[in-house]
Amino acid sequence: MHKIISRSLFVFVMVANLSYGQTGLDVMKEQDRRHRSDQEFTEYTMTLLDSRGKEKQRRMVSYSKNIEHGQSKSLIKFLEPTNISNVGLLTWSDSEQESDNQWLYLPASKKIKRITGGGKASSFMSTDFAFEDMRPENLDTHTYTIIREEEIEGQLCWVIEALPSTSKEKRDSGYSKRQLWVGHDHYLTIKTDFYDRRKKLSKKGV
Known about the structure:
Blueprint: H1 2-20, H2 24-35, E1 39-49, E2 55-66, E3 71-80, E4 88-94, E5 101-106, E6 111-115, E7 142-152, E8 155-164, H3 167-172, E9 175-183, E10 189-196, E11 201-205
Antiparallel strand pairs: 1-2, 2-3, 3-4, 4-5, 5-6, 7-8, 8-9, 9-10, 10-11
């Protein structure tokens, strides 16, 4: 009886140590491995709330394709409302480069605007999102640290602090840090807190 209890306790301790032995970067790499696909298509609705609680909705589609050697392309296109229909944002990412290339297409003027440097911290189409929020996570330009574990709606999560790690990312990003809640079971980010350059909480994403 005592041997069985002791052996069970040993197994439990080994499993616990394996879980806590993961670093923040390990978790983020596993998230990328599990959820990266060669091609992806998504249709979704963005709901905007003003200070009076009035809602506005925008319907969009996104296409993404992983090419090779860490390169990927993604396109976000607005479908509704009609005044911004066909506005598109193209992002070309390369894991070997410190920054992504982004272009915004404005059909009303038939112009293409390149988003460069600090412009990526600007508001994306009058929303709370910035252009930098619309690009893939670049694991090479950030450091990731597990600061605690926390349960959200019954889901145990790692709370990971993401900090810009390169001089260019620190200069161009509008964030001093982000906190990511990544679920133990599915490795999805289910909540993000964004902190501005003054290290104050500026917005929450769910």
